[in-house]
Amino acid sequence: MKKKINRQFMVLSSLAAAVTLLCMAVVFYHIFRAQVLDDLRLYARMLSAGGQEISAEKTEESLRGLSDADAPVRVTVIDSSGLVVYDSDADAGRMDNHADRPEVREALESGEGSSIRQSATMQHNTYYYTMLLTDGSVLRVAREAHSIWSILYRALPAMLAVICALLALCLLLAHWLTKSLLAPIERMAADMDCIGEQEIYEELVPFAETIRRQHDAILKNADMRQEFSANVSHELKSPLAVISGYSELIENGMASGQDVIRFAAEIRKSSARLLTLINDTIRLSELDVIDRDISLEELDLYEIVRDSVEILQLRAEERSVMLSMEGGSCKMRGDKQMIEELVYNLCDNAINYNNIGGSVTVSAQRVDGRPLLRVRDTGIGIPAEYQDRIFERFYRVDKSRSKSTGGTGLGLAIVKHIVEAHHAEISLASEPGKGTDITVTFADQY
Which parts of 369-444 are beta strand (E)? Predict the structure, then answer.
């Protein structure tokens, strides 16, 4: 990156130096051209001083005082018809009619005129200035001077020397500027944990904060994955140990009669628990990588609640829990499978952690124009200090109750993922011994 910035600085510096010198040359040439025309105007006025007629003797005498060895002045007198009356450098009688010359035509029309004509070699320009005299004739003075190309050619060595000097200076400045510009970024990259304490560019603050949040999120995810792996290993170990132990007893003939039936039942329950754990783990992994822009379809939240209540009714009766529903038709847009899973997990959780003779009420309705799912139970409740953690993977408030009901500790973690995927909001209110009230409010996308 440093090399790229240095190269860009050098290219910009080279272009800036070249353009600056070229512009200066053009400006100086225009100043030089204006000066030449001013000198010619002065010569013409001196020659025509006092309004006297221009004679050959007077012109030659004046030219001896005005001539410059490097830039001799040429004087021409032209009558109103364009015929050359006098020329200091040529035979006037053999010269063409000058009526069509722009400087002569301009003088006849407005009293004075000027023009510049380039030589064939492009090395010199001829500057003309004309003045209308009192007798109607035109006085023209002319001299040759270097053209802009000649000036640039002569100045080229000096320009190249200046450019080289500027490039050398720019190289040092570019190296220093690049180092200064990148120093805050390098410090930030070297220590991401102290971004807030470092002096960085104001424009980079949002970027730095985003990087820091991503850095923290990566670390958090790494810790969560490590914890998840440890929890999965621990959760798998218990049912596998049961299956292995009872199977070994049966295999070695150490169980007979009713013991075999009892051991087989324990193996079946542990197998079912193991299968549920594996399925929940796979489902959670799928939700971890699912695209947040899920495919939405029109569905009725009340119908999904009704189906889940019917499926869980027998399970609720087995646990002596009364399961009921409230509300009415509630249209919304969402992923049907995920919403069904959300409702099922919340209802199943409310049944499992309820008391004998308790109740679970599930409602689906619109509140303030937004679809709302509410699951209330009269179960064991959740202490305030644990309420922020119940959506974590494998977290259980009552571990003994979870084991007895076959819970994996992943149900509410799956619920949280589904809520986030639908850009919904979930809230919880609970009091130990009095029950739990969970509300999911969906965005109004219908």
Answer: 370-377, 425-431, 435-441
Residues whose CB falls within 8 Å of the CB of residue 272, separated by 6 or more in sequence, listed in order? 406
Q: How far apart are CA 349 and CA 372, in angstroms?
A: 18
Map out the domains of the chain with their CATH numbers.
2-151 (3.30.450.20), 217-288 (1.10.287.130), 297-441 (3.30.565.10)
Amino acid at 73: V
Strand partners, 255: none
Contact 29, 127 (CB under 8 A): no
Per residue in 239-286, pLDDT tens? 888 888 888 888 888 877 788 888 888 888 888 777 877 776 777 666
Instruction: Tell me the CA distances in angstroms from 334 to 303, 308, 422, 424, one per residue in order.
Output: 13, 17, 7, 10
Report the DSSP pairing between strands 359-367 and 322-327: parallel
Specify which residues 116 forms β-bridges with.
127
CA distance 114 to 98: 14
* Gap between the Cα atoms of 193 and 211, Å rounded: 10
Q: What is the DSSP letter of 197?
A: G
Element (H, E) at 124: strand 124-132
Beta bridge partners of 326: 363
Name every residue whose Cβ is closer than 8 Å to that of residue 104 and which is 6 or more positions away in sequence: 78, 82, 98, 113, 130, 138, 140
pTM of the prediction?
Answer: 0.50
